[in-house]
Specification:
Layout (H helix, E strand, L loop, with lengths): L5 H64 L3 H4 L4 H6 L11 H6 L19
Length: 122
């Protein structure tokens, strides 16, 4: 945007010294520094507030899409005794060998049972 080199800064400082004098120049420079610090602090606070609002908006959006996509618990539960009996229950493995742990990542939750596509026997 604006490119101010060393020579331009020297020219501005020389003009400020001539206009303001050596007594007022330090006070004016200090006041300009305070105003610049306040402006930077306000810009930083504004940026942080925008980031917080964007994060909250993204979180709300994720929550609404997750609740809309998740099925209701009553839909996935079996409703009759026949359906409950036809679901196979496999016991969890209590022993693990080193070959099993080397090929699979460790997990505290056992994998879900395979889906039952066979019709109930009766």
């Amino acid at each position: 945007m604006f490119e101010v080199g060393f020579s331009e800064l020297l020219l501005i400082m020389g003009l400020a010294l001539l206009v303001l004098g050596p007594e007022k120049l330090p006070k004016v420079v200090g006041e300009i520094g305070r105003w610049m610090g306040r402006a930077r602090a306000m810009a930083r606070q504004f940026r942080e507030q925008l980031e917080i609002e964007a994060d909250e908006s993204a979180r709300r959006k994720r929550e609404t899409t997750a609740t809309a996509a998740a099925p209701a618990p009553a839909e996935s539960a079996p409703t009759t005794e026949a359906a409950a009996e036809s679901t196979p229950v496999e016991p969890a493995a209590t022993e693990s060998t080193t070959a099993d742990t080397a090929s699979e990542p460790s997990s505290s939750v056992p994998p879900p049972p395979p889906p039952n596509d066979d019709p109930p026997r009766g």
